[in-house]
Design goal:
The chain is mainly α and 178 residues long. 74% of the residues lie in helices and 0% in strands.
């Protein structure tokens, strides 16, 4: 049974479409959605330099601690394995990803952690990174996104970029979080 697109708020629907288009380098189409759909004041608020200043101040151990908390929320008990694998790829990579990707970028103002996870899901789905997509689908559920919402996001993304969705929808249904 297919979920209805109406299950998504207008803000999330816009986030999904823009994320899908940007990930495929369709910037002109994404910009037209931004200009057409978003309220001018909201756009100005998110473009404010105050968010950038906050990010720069957050470097160091504070960003490392926040990044670790976000990683724990997204990856649950798999966090140790993930960090080990990252360090196996390149020594120090786990620290850098924890601090920069999760402590700074995932911690920016403007979007909540669940909204950022939805954007990650969209981009990974659009590019076909199935292993990473599975981890972020689980992470999205861990941070409070329902399976119904995930299915709707995948359907909207599939329609936006012209990709099949059955395999990913089946994967979502099979995910179990302890």
């Amino acid at each position: 049974m297919r979920p209805k697109q109406r299950a998504l708020s207008r803000r999330i629907l816009i986030l999904v479409k823009i994320s899908a288009l940007y990930s495929l380098r369709e910037r002109d189409k994404a910009h037209s959605i931004v200009h057409r759909e978003l309220d001018g004041l909201e756009s100005i608020a998110h473009a404010s330099p105050h968010g950038r200043r906050r990010i720069l101040r957050a470097r160091g151990s504070d960003a490392q601690k926040r990044g670790k908390r976000i990683l724990e929320r997204i990856y649950g008990q798999q966090i140790s394995r993930l960090l080990r694998r990252l360090d196996d790829l390149y020594p120090g990579l786990a620290h850098k990803i924890t601090q920069d990707a999760y402590g700074l970028i995932m911690n920016r103002v403007g979007l909540t952690l669940p909204q950022r996870e939805l954007a990650n899901v969209v981009v990974l789905y659009a590019h076909g990174f199935d292993r990473q997509l599975y981890s972020h689908l689980r992470g999205a559920i861990r941070v409070g996104i329902s399976k119904k919402t995930l299915k709707t996001v995948i359907l909207v993304t599939a329609k936006t970029i012209g990709k099949r969705s059955k395999q990913t929808l089946d994967t979502i249904e099979k995910i179990r979080i302890a």
